[in-house]
Amino acid sequence: MSTEHFDVLIIGAGLSGVGMACRLAIVCPGKRVGILERRQAIGGTWDLFRYPGVRSDSDMFTFGFGFRPWHDLKVLADGPSIRDYVVATAREYAIEERIRFGVQVVHAAWSSAAAMWTVDARDDAGAVHRFSASFVVGCTGYYAYDQGYVPDFPQRERYEGRFVHPQHWPADLDWRGKHVVVIGSGATAITLVPALAREAAHVTMVQRSPGYVMSVPSRDAISAALLHVLPKRWVYAMARWRNIKLQRLLYRAAMRWPARVRALLLAGVRRGLRGETSMADFSPGYDPWTQRLCVVPDHDLFEALREGRASVRTDTVAGFEAGGVRLASGATIDADIVIAATGFQLQVLGGMTLDIDGVPCEPGRLLTYKGVLLEGVPNMAVLFGYINASWTLKVDLAAQYVCRLLQRMDEHGARVAVPRAPAAEALATCIMDALHAGYVLRGEAQLPRQGREGPWRVTHQYETDRRVLVTEPIDDPALDFR
Hey, where are the domains in the chain? Predict the structure, then answer.
């Protein structure tokens, strides 16, 4: 079997992988970089998800790349626009030609003798392709692409209508004039409901418990005004800076004054509903930001509820009948289509396995170093975004750190860099311990562990990460160069 070698091999050609490759093209243009992508297109999440209304749940000024800012007044962009943005970025930096499409990485093995990774990937026909790399960067996100999460609903086999998970939306699904039930209350559910309600007979969102929902303008009026007097580059840079500050202010306020932030968020919901829907359906029993905050553009969800095109039921699915969903309260909701917006299956490194000198390595037992490298794992980075802000903010900082690390290795004449954690540094909690979402609780064992302090603890704080990853020296007693 022939083996193609790369200085840096990136796993995944979504937002994170393209961003990493672009940073390398800018800072380390002499490196031979390859990208392995299991799908046949660039975009990752934004190529996979095709359900109606799919859009970002973070503002695009902070969700876009720092080196190629989002230049549009649209605050929450739709999925196709985001996919086009990622593809255009890849083409601008000549990244597309570096991608091997249709190959899924299944295993990576490190050899200390060769100071190199051997990476095996399988194509759609089952053939194995082998690559070698001096450095590997995992950019696969944190959920499984093959299958979304669907609870074990009782008597689901009785249901005679269409049952759909948004992760694999059927191209032939026609909801016009039909009764639709959406099970769930997260970002996907609150996006689907108003989008479907425009043409469906009625859409009912069934939620086990409420979540926090905040409405934001769909268009940035401040930037629109500034474009009349300032250069475009300045305006969009200011929008990015402003929104980073606002995100951080809201999160810090929620941690310090949860009751006040809760009152502020619920007041916004009350204005959106205008008394047409019970506030009980939008009053969570937990503090803000202990689960991710859901964002809607221009009150679109509340408008659908006010106009009677959609409704919310806070209840538990007890089972299915031939024509609909039976709730724990005893009520039955007729449904031609049921959509299980019930989340995803958490997965680390796209499901690939690792070994180091023949010894299996499980990321769920390791610490992360500065939230980028894995304890005891040579020459590997894993890019993981924020849970309390735009994903890309952290991924871009991590990509810059990887470039700085590679430059420093070249300066040292080092072939290997591996972080070494002190004894008893690991805690029992995972790196997403601040988020109490269902997918975290289900897949917590797969995620790397939290450390007690310093570079071994993931803080999810942009200001701290910017200093640690972009400004502080690379050299560190905990980082072993060989």
Answer: 3-145+345-481, 150-228+256-342
What's the pLDDT tens digit per position in 384-433? 999 888 999 999 999 999 999 999 999 999 999 999 999 889 898 888 87
Opening angle at CA 426, ends 400 and 140, nearest 5:
40
Q: Which of 124, 79, 94 is nearest to 18 (CA)?
A: 94
β-strands 426-430, 449-451 pairing = antiparallel
Residues 139, 383: contact at Cβ < 8 Å?
yes
What is the spatial distance between Cα 401 and Cα 21, in angstroms, rounded to a whole number?
13
Decide if 369 contacts 455 (C-beta within 8 A): yes
Domain 3-145+345-481: top CATH class:
alpha beta
Predicted model pTM: 0.94
Spell out the long-range contacts of 200-205 with Cβ–Cβ below 8 A and sequence spacing 24 or more.
200/175, 200/176, 200/309, 201/177, 202/309, 202/310, 202/311, 203/304, 203/309, 203/310, 203/311, 204/179, 204/180, 204/310, 204/311, 204/312, 204/313, 204/333, 204/335, 205/181, 205/310, 205/311, 205/312, 205/313
Tokens linked to 209: 């418990």
Which CATH superfamily includes the segment(s) 150-228+256-342? FAD/NAD(P)-binding domain (3.50.50.60)
The 10s digit of each residue's pLDDT in 5-28 is: 999 999 999 999 999 999 999 999
| Nearest-angstrom CA–CA distance, 98 and 22 | 11
Residue with tokens 């700085």: 404
CB 387 within 8 A of CB 435: yes
Domains 3-145+345-481 and 150-228+256-342 share a fold: yes
CA end-to-end distance (rounded Å), the chain: 30
DSSP secondary structure string for all residues of 346-408: E-SGGG-EEEETTEEE-GGG-BEETTTEETT-TTEEE----SSS-HHHHHHHHHHHHHHHHHH
Distance CA 184, CA 210 (A): 9
In whole angstroms, give the CA distance from residue 156 to residue 470: 51
Q: Are 76 and 60 in contact (CB under 8 A)?
A: yes
Burial (CB count within 10 angstroms: exposed 0-12, middle 13-18, buried 19+), residue 477 = exposed
Residue 243 corresponds to which tokens in the numbers above? 């929104």
**β-strands 213-216, 294-297 pairing:** parallel
Residues near 196 by beta carbon (within 8 Å), at least 6 away in sequence: 52, 53, 175, 180, 182, 203
